[in-house]
Amino acid sequence: MIWTITPNPALDVTYQVPDLELGKVSPAATPTRLPGGKGLNVARTLAQLGVRNTATGLLGGPTGAEFMKLLQELPHTNLITSAFVDAGVNTRSSIALVKNGNATVVNETGHAVPTEVWAVVNAQLERVQPGDVVALCGSFPPETDPQVATDLVQKCKQKGAIVLADTSGPYLLAAAAGGADVLKPNHLELAAATGTTDVAQGAHALQAAGGGIVVCSAAEGGMNAFLGKHAGHKIAQSENAGGDTANDSNGDGHSVSHVRSHPHDEDEPLFTPPARLVSGNPTGAGDSVVAALAYRISTCGLSGDWAEYLAFASILAAATVAHPTAGGFDEKLYNQLKVEKHVS
After folding, report:
1. Is 128 strand, coil or helix?
2. Which of 62, 178, 210, 301 has its CA 20 to 30 A from that of 26?
3. pLDDT tens for each residue of 214-249
4. Which residues have C-beta within 8 Å of that of residue 43, sequence separation ≥ 6?
5. H helices then E strands: how many in the chain?
6. Helix (H, G, I), strand (E, B) or coil at 183
7. Quick check: 93 and 14 in contact, CB under 8 A?
8. Is residue 34 within 8 Å of residue 70, measured between CB atoms?
């Protein structure tokens, strides 16, 4: 079973604003309103893949009630078991303004929650079984002690689960300190948490703090995975980089790289480029990376083929950008890219 923990979910409100100009009145059609937050996006993406999962976190107030109502109305959500806990405060909203496929996102920070709600979340996690995969995703409510993140990770590991963490700031460091098996910051989050813009140094800082594999994403810059003791394969970036790749055309003008993997040491990052540069809404692309990794780890474990894991993640991320809203992906592009990249 895959679990997602969303400490600070949001009701995602997305406006299409073709004539958006700051400081001016801009007309927009009726927005889409969807349950969101990073963990819930992961849960919904997994459900679209046909993967049953359990979603927990904090919800409350009128927005929380709307969140649950909308969740129950979405396709595939029969595969999501809800285990959300009453936050005692109203759930926040996230506003996306999309112009010509480019999104400007305004995230409410949310409200501080009573400290006792975390004990209730921990009680839900008593149901976690050995071998389950738990993804701790997104921000935490204001004024939350970072120790909460450490405790959540340690609780799941004590139950025998594999833990992925995709959070930021002191909570990213706290998840590492708790022994998270995989940490998935983007390059900006990694720099903010560790104080260095050098991705390798930042990844090694998280590992020194107690974390395991670090997967750092950088949108068009692709992904680097620092595998540590799980090192075993390297994606060759190009023939000039000493790798073994073959390039051809897929028939629509796009170059395709068929990548073969090579052994490497644990200090060398494993790199994968974007499956395709796609114009669209990037909100949720990182969440799809987490969903892809959680899915692969749940079936193949931490010591599987990470070159394939990252290739699959890059495909799902690209298909998510092509989808109008977070929490879903363009199935046509997803299937096309799987064929092009020889990923099952």
Report:
1. coil
2. 62
3. 999 998 899 999 998 776 544 333 333 333 333 333
4. 4, 53, 55, 80
5. 10, 18
6. strand
7. no
8. yes
